[in-house]
Amino acid sequence: MTKKIPPVIELRGLTKRYGVGDAEHNALDEIDLTIEKGEFITIMGPSGCGKTTLLNILGLLDRSDDGEYLLDGKSVETLSNTRHARIRSQQIGIVFQSFNLINRLNVIENVALPLTYKGMFRTKRLIMASEILKSFHLSEREYYMPWQLSGGQMQRVAIARALVNNPSIILADEPTGNLDSKSSHIVMEELSDLHKRGNTIVMVTHNPNLTTYASRVIQMLDGKVASDTKVPPAKKETNKKKPLNIESSTPPVKDTPKKSAKNRKKKQAKK
Ligand SMILES: Nc1ncnc2c1ncn2[C@@H]1O[C@H](COP(=O)(O)OP(=O)(O)O)[C@@H](O)[C@H]1O
Ligand SMILES: [Mg+2]
Fold first, then answer.
1. Which of 15, 18, 55, 173 to mutate to test the pocket of ligand 1 (most atoms within 8 A of CB)?
2. Residue 111 falls inside a structural domain
3. Which DSSP string corresponds to 146-185?
């Protein structure tokens, strides 16, 4: 008999409190959540509902006050911070809204950074970073400094860095929050590609249009899961074909009337 694979993430009654006395409130209020391998989850909800708190706990950057968090079937609650850091460096890739690249390191060094914790030699680290940058079509930017990149490029470098360890989970907190619509689109295509390759993705977003990429949409409210909807694959396909409408609602203009007139003239001239 084959052993059943446990869910990548399982939360039971997860609670996080902030403040004391009268000011105490639950940023996360007994959250139950199961995430299977290969899901692409978007988490939505009003500001302050607990999205970042949840993502930080999932990423082992923060701890809950109550409840249980099982990662790959194993409880992580009682593990030390050092152990958490090691698990993070091996299994979890995190992408932030503000990219969080290190300004004094160039692109390839930024991407290679997570491998330092694995005790890998520098040459090997740089080879691995170079490989992943190649898959992101960023090879030409390897020796650029972060400030020489556009926002979209910075976020793609940050995603490459999150992936260099080959993590089983990618967590992203509003990864397109600081990007224009074109860069958002490129970053979302990148995440969508990772999902197709079997990665598990949990992404917080404010933008309802980005849920078209997801296999499951979770709405949060006041530290609780308010709704949890699986997106049927068929519906996803039709949604995907729609043009992505990220910030502006102006549809892409393919051919201006002026140009068409010009082209017509050209064609006529050819005749
Ligand atoms: N470090 C903190 N100290 C005190 N309260 C906090 C802290 N971080 C978050 N909170 C509170 O927890 C709640 C959830 O915050 P957050 O997870 O950042 O929400 P979201 O990401 O959905 O906007 C908010 O009420 C916020 O004020
Ligand atoms: Mg937040």
1. 18
2. yes
3. GGGS-HHHHHHHHHHHHHTT--SEEEEESTTTTS-HHHHH
Long-range Cβ contacts of 110-119 (<8 Å, 24+ apart): 110/146, 110/157, 110/161, 111/157, 111/160, 111/161, 111/164, 112/164, 113/161, 114/89, 114/161, 114/162, 114/164, 114/165, 115/164, 115/165, 117/85, 117/86, 117/89, 118/89, 118/90, 118/165
- Is 54 a domain residue? yes
Q: Give 120-138 pLDDT, tens digit per residue.
A: 899 999 999 999 999 888 9
Number of domains into which the chain is organized: 1
Domain that holds residue 127: 38-63+81-246
Distance 179 CA to ligand 2 centre (A): 16
Ion ligand 2, residues whose Cβ is below 5 A away? 51-52
- Give the global pTM: 0.83
Distance, CA of 44 to CA of 41 (rounded, Å): 10
DSSP 208: G
CA distance 51 to 223: 8
14 C-alpha to ligand 2 centroid (Å): 18
Contact assessment for residue 232 and residue 246, using Cβ atoms and an 8 Å cutoff: no
pLDDT number for residue 90: 87
